[in-house]
Specification:
The chain is mainly alpha-helical. The protein has one domain. Helices cover 72% and strands 0% of the residues. It has two helices and no strands.
């Protein structure tokens, strides 16, 4: 096990979440389509919104996770 196993597992989780979100968003886009906006446009919009949301959530998570792996400021012991 390397230090990056958590990153790989978390990235796979967000990938699966993105795929499921796109499928569910596609289902809702077709179900609630208006006459003024075509179902194809709703599908594209749902795909873009879900993809951007998942990417932003993943980016936020990966920054927080990697920040905890190697903190910039390390404690220094005081000399007595």
């Amino acid at each position: 096990m390397t230090n990056y196993t958590g990153i790989i597992i978390g990235s796979i989780f967000f990938g699966v979440l993105g795929i499921l979100g796109c499928i569910y968003g596609n289902h809702l886009a077709v179900k609630h389509s208006n006459a003024r906006i075509s179902a194809a446009e709703n599908r594209r919009l749902a795909f873009v919104v879900v993809t951007m949301a998942i990417f932003c959530m993943w980016l936020h998570w990966i920054c927080a996770y990697m920040h905890q792996m190697n903190p910039i400021i390390q404690p220094t012991p005081e000399a007595e």
